[in-house]
Amino acid sequence: MKVINKIFKKFFIIVFLLQTHSVGAQEIIKIGLLAPLTGEYSDIGKSIVQSVRMGINKIDNDNIKILPRNTLSDTNETLKVVNNLYSDGIRIFIGPVFNKNLKGLEKFNDAIFLSLTNKTLNNPKNIISTGVNAKSQFKAIKRFLEINELNKTLVLIPKKDFKEEIENGILKSQIKTSKIFYYDAEPTKLTKQIEKVTKYQIRKKNLEDEIKRVEMSDDPNKERKIKRLEKKDTIGRIGFDSIVIADFNESLKSVTTSLLYTDVSPKNVSFISLNQWFDETLFKETTSQPISFPSINIQKYKKFTKEYFDLFNENPSQIAILSYDLVGLIYYSLIQNNFEVNNKLFFKKNKFKGVSGVFEINKNNINHILNFYTVDNNNFIEIF
Fold it and tell me: What predicted TM-score, i.e. pTM, was given to this entire model?
């Protein structure tokens, strides 16, 4: 009889747990979506909302509800809309988009904010940065250097507001560098600074001295040698086999131009940059090629962009693909956590494969496992 009672009790517990999970699975999960829907950044906000809706349609679960709210890209407005949603019981949010709008969100300490920022330093504890952060990028760069046996790396860091993020990414990725050099973004100072770090004046003097030496020599072929030397700009090595330029857009191009001016060519030294989001204007910079960078998967990025365009007749913003993936990531994490929204949701070590690539989740931190590409001959060539 005791055995039968034990079996009955175990059966009752199992049924109860199954019923509890079933009820949890049927509960409506509401997710706040914080984006600038009007104002200067409204195009980005619109793109994010539409991408999230694509993600919702993909998971096809009527119990997941998205509640978009306009932050105006303003900190006070962000706090206002969050407070309203929080009062209605919302505890999980996609957004804010920009790092500047995170201030004050720490007071909603039992809520989780999946921000699209790639900045990770000094954020409130309830913020999870989901952008392609510096650590993820430098881990991919580290792999590229190891594959190509490059071990004398110069890292060029601009004196900008993301300098500390770059430093932290270098530290966390455990990448080995030979030298870190900080430069001014101002063009009038930049070239002089690049001259200094690449030993341009020394290498230029080496050439002048070599020409004089040959001129003074009794070498019967000195005229031919002098002509060959006169075609050069410098003589001597810069002491590095690879250069990582932690910059973007026109600033990146200014640095590569200065490197070329100081007779440092990507044909001899590997040029590497941070994630350029497949910026096709790099194709025009033929003298700066090849140049390599980490990024998300290009084929999946193109596929997502096409699907988005087919639906909305316009191209998405660069970070829209991340907001699309966050819907799947949240849904996956909810399943793993019995559809409970709490501080365990993104705490356990895990991985999620999204359209943009693989997300690594651990202790409320998210990193990306990135691919690597080289710009050469008007094409993005995948390295890994």
Answer: 0.89
